[in-house]
Amino acid sequence: MEIKTVFLIFGIVLAVTAVVVSFVGLRVKSFPSRGALIGMLVFAVALVIGTTTFAVKLSVQEQEEREHGETDIPGEEASPATGEEASATPLKIPARY
């Protein structure tokens, strides 16, 4: 399984867990019991640690891919082959009156 897939799974489960706990907490007056609180805290901490771990791993992997030029990163523009294309047209700033 790819790092990005694992990161997305952890992130989605973390977000869904937060929404469910908020919903249950707003609806049930006696929520949470002592055991449920400890269990939820352990589960939430595990999700946060997993999400941040795979976020860092994914960012390191994408940085290495950028440095070595192995693949195009989605959402990034390809840099021009020569510097001439980027600076061929000067930037025109309108004058203020």
Task: Provide structural commentary.
With 97 residues, the chain is an all-alpha fold. The mean pLDDT is 85. The N and C termini lie far apart (60 Å). It contains three helices and no strands. Helix 1 runs antiparallel to helix 2. The chain has one domain. It is elongated, with a radius of gyration of 23 Å.
Secondary structure layout plus pairing:
Elements: H1 3-27, H2 34-68, H3 83-87
Helix pairs in contact: 1-2
Short description:
With 97 residues, this protein is mostly helical. It contains 3 helices and no strands.
State the main characteristics:
single chain; 97 residues; mainly alpha
Instruction: Give unreliable regions as ranges.
Output: none
Rounded average pLDDT:
85
- For the record, the count of structural domains works out to 1
Overall 3D form: elongated
Which structural class is indicated by helix and strand composition? mainly alpha
Oligomer: single chain
- Secondary-structure element sequence? HHH
* Number of alpha- plus pi-helical segments: 3
Largest sheet: none
Helix content: 55-70%
Q: Which band does the percent of strand residues land in?
A: under 5%
How many extended strands? 0
Distance between the termini: 60 Å
Radius of gyration, whole Å:
23 Å
